[in-house]
Amino acid sequence: MQQSSRPPAPRSAPLAPQSARAGRAGDVLAVVSQSGATVSFFDAASDRLLGTTEVLAEPHELCFDPTQRLLWCTSAYHSGYYHANGGRRTEVTVIDPDTRRVVEVVDLAPEHGPHGLALDPVRRLLYVSVEGSADRPGGVVVIDTATRRPVGRIDTDAPGPHWFAIDPAGRTGYATNKEAPFVSVVDLERGVMTARAEVPGSEGLAVSADGSLVFVAAPYAGVFAGHVEERPADGIRVIDARTASVIDTLPADNVVMPVHLTSTGKLLAGEMRIEPDPVYRLGRQAPGRLSVFSADSRRRLGELEIGLGPLTITSSPDGRIGYVACVVSSTVDIVDLETLERLGRLDIAKYAEPGAHGLAYIPRPA
């Protein structure tokens, strides 16, 4: 793995209005290309490609650690995807985002299938979800970000924990499970699972700023058509963190995959739309939808058409701009979250192999 020698390409979209770009000079957006096994770095003010870094095959998610100023990238499989892969990987790649060079590849073996990432910057701990095997359930590996070494493991009592999130206090973690009918609730201080929040198989999730609510995309997107009558209603389950029970559902017209909460309290949900197709039994991808809710009132604020197959969402630290990575179209939509207007679109396939997935917003060095 090495930094690509490919020269920066022209930006893929016109500059956004100055009001949305103000103060972003030097900030960087990192984007995973799952098929191309690269992480591309774009100037957040101009959308100009700064360079790409080669990583291990099948990179999935990203997490930026501002304390160590390092970018973590999970690689889940040698090839393929969940339940249809060429073997599970065991590594997490650490990248210096300023030089765009790989610092280290951390091997988590015998753990495998790393995917979700959640950072506790105060305790300097990184949590990585890993898949289970015949002799142990899925779980979460705990990494000391200073030494970059595993220091613990927490079982989640499900075979395939996928996304993972922690509360702002760093005391409780939540793992979504594709097939298991619950979200795993774990005590991060004691290192044990404490509860199951019952939801149909789940995808993305986010925790409210005060830690009292967890927003979970459910049900699992494994079946898009053919058994629609058997599926629970698509939407976002709202879990009371105190009781680990669902207290509300934010409705959606389509399967919800990623969920993200901004610093300003807006809940962003990526809906994956499938249209009937006589050739493909499960239908074909149609333009997705970014739905925006108020996390406090749970009221829908608006929606916007985006690329095909939204998988990951992030936002700028001030909560003004949202970024949606769409794996099928291999694009990243850049959205003004105040006006719900699209400011631009990054065509990742111009710079790397298709498969836009993980995202990380990296503020400029202090």
Structure description:
The chain is mostly beta strands and 366 residues long. The chain has a single domain (25-223, 232-362), classed as YVTN repeat-like/Quinoprotein amine dehydrogenase (Methylamine Dehydrogenase, Chain H). The protein has one helix and 30 strands. It has one helix at residues 18-21, and strands spanning 28-33, 38-43, 49-54, 59-65, 70-75, 80-81, 84-85, 91-96, 101-107, 117-120, 125-130, 139-144, 149-155, 161-166, 172-177, 182-187, 192-198, 205-207, 213-218, 235-240, 245-251, 255-261, 266-275, 284-294, 300-305, 310-315, 321-326, 331-336, 341-347, 356-362. Strand 23 and strand 24 (284-294) form a beta hairpin. It is globular and about 45 Å long. The model is unreliable at 2-17 and 223-228 (pLDDT under 50). InterPro entries: Host-pathogen_enzymatic-act (IPR051200), N2O_reductase_N (IPR011045), WD40/YVTN_repeat-like_dom_sf (IPR015943). This is YncE family protein.
